[in-house]
Specification:
Elements (H helix, E strand, L loop, with lengths): L8 H32 L3 H29 L1 H17 L7 H29 L5 H29 L2 H19 L12 H8 L12 H27 L3 H29 L1 H20 L5
Length: 298
């Protein structure tokens, strides 16, 4: 981009879209296991499958979109993704059986993967090169805010309204995402060389995986695994130990802590290196999970 500005209309718009997409995802994530048990009398393990199969769908959506987004066009993929996104969110109303709910969750995950890949690709192109780190950091805050507000809204709605009203709220948010997506301009990009295009279209494992990132990816997988368990089952767990009121604030406090620690962690990372930041954070995370497991009374 020629402009040096970070906070352009497109940057804000794409960040808002990303925020709403993750808001819907996280709002539903905290209530869907409870919904499966309450409506279909699912076992705890099956309810966990209902919640987690979304992630499988998101991976499918990301893999499928990542390879072809440049050929199809960023904005076109975004609009198609939001249409798919609306459709899958509305389909929750039609989940009359447990297998159908699982299929809808998988499709919703695919739609989420397509849409979030499109927003991530667009934002990477509209951020000025000199503000890449700052821009990605602010863009990432849209997910942090969604991780605070989404679960908070989900648990709050679960305590006061029925599931149909929750699905109505998420459907309205999905429609808002669709209309906002038309405001985004197609970002300009430098076209790759012809031989690069041919290489990218060949089926090669290296086109999908960066093996140098495998160690840190395993760490992220373990952290994400433990975190997703909390998100999926916190509504059931807190009801069992009579801490429903505290549950709605768990994610808000967690997100506030993330927002506060983010600038300090970034500076320490630049000054002292990644190990100086990662090892203490992993230890603190483990302590936090241990304390959470002991929160068994009011």
């Amino acid at each position: 981009m020629d402009t040096k500005e970070l906070w352009t209309r497109d940057f804000v718009t794409v960040s808002v879209i990303n925020f709403l997409v993750f808001l819907v995802h996280l709002l539903l994530m905290v209530i869907i296991a409870f919904y499966a048990i309450d409506k279909f009398h699912a076992t705890t393990s099956v309810a966990g499958l209902v919640a987690s199969i979304f992630i499988i769908g998101a991976l499918i959506g990301r893999f499928a979109t990542g390879r072809f987004i440049e050929d199809i066009g960023n904005k076109r993929v975004l609009i198609v993704g939001t249409i798919f996104f609306i459709t899958t969110v509305v389909l929750y109303f039609a989940a009359i059986t447990l297998p159908l709910l699982i299929i809808i969750r998988l499709l919703h995950g695919i739609a989420h993967g397509v849409t979030s890949t499109a927003t991530g690709t667009i934002v990477a192109k509209i951020i000025p090169a000199g503000k890449r780190g700052e821009g990605i950091g602010y863009y990432g805050m849209s997910i942090i805010l969604a991780s605070a507000i989404g679960p908070f809204m989900g648990i709050l709605l679960l305590q006061h309204v029925d599931f149909k009203m929750i699905f109505l709220v998420t459907s309205i948010l999905a429609v808002v995402v669709f209309f906002i997506s038309f405001v985004v301009n197609e970002p300009a990009c430098n076209l790759p060389e012809q031989n690069e295009i041919k290489a990218a279209k060949k089926f090669q494992l290296s086109n999908f995986f960066e093996f140098k990132a495998l160690p840190i990816s395993i760490i992220a997988l373990i952290i994400g695994f433990s975190g997703s368990i909390v998100i999926a089952f916190i509504s059931l767990y807190t009801k069992e130990v009579h801490l429903e009121e505290a549950a709605s604030f768990y994610f808000v406090i967690s997100a506030i802590a993330s927002l506060i620690s983010r600038p300090f962690a970034g500076r320490l990372f630049d000054l002292r290196g990644e190990n100086f930041v990662v090892y203490p954070c992993l230890f603190i995370y483990a302590i936090g999970m241990l304390l959470f497991s002991q929160a068994n009374h009011g």
